[in-house]
Write a structure and sequence with these properties.
alpha+beta, two-stranded antiparallel ribbon, 3 helices, elongated
């Protein structure tokens, strides 16, 4: 009985193993067909997958309406933090009053963040540098 049970387990195990191998080979063959499938048009080979990939890599794959919507979202949402070489600036709802030499309004041309800057205005959002606690 013990030998018969061992034989049944081995046969079932091999059956499952062979079934798994066949499934993997079939799925890989299908994947290869989609990658290398070529279509003959006017005596030239055109790789369909490369054509599809190029279409999605192209910057024109978004509709003009969707581009406009994404651009609006990017311009209207406030970043969580501004990382600069002069420190990190965090968003504030109620800005403090600072002298004009400590405020950098990046919406205006020519203004830059310096080491003295404590407040930054970017796209009408206000950010302030947090004071280091010692």
């Amino acid at each position: 009985m013990n030998k018969r049970l061992r034989t049944i387990v081995v046969v079932l195990g091999l059956t499952v193993l062979v079934g798994g191998v066949i499934t993997v080979i079939q799925s890989q063959t299908f994947a290869n067909e989609t990658i290398t499938g070529a279509k003959v048009t006017d005596n030239s080979n055109v790789n369909e997958t490369k054509a599809r990939a190029k279409a999605t890599d192209d910057s024109n794959w978004l509709s003009p309406e969707r581009k406009k919507e994404l651009n609006h979202l990017a311009q209207s949402e406030q970043p969580h933090i501004l990382l600069t070489e002069h420190g990190d600036f965090y968003p504030v709802k109620v800005p403090n009053k600072y002298p004009s030499d400590q405020v950098a309004n990046l919406d205006n041309d020519g203004e830059e963040i310096t080491a003295k800057t404590k407040q930054v205005i970017l796209r009408n959002f206000t950010y302030e540098k947090k004071e280091e606690e010692n």
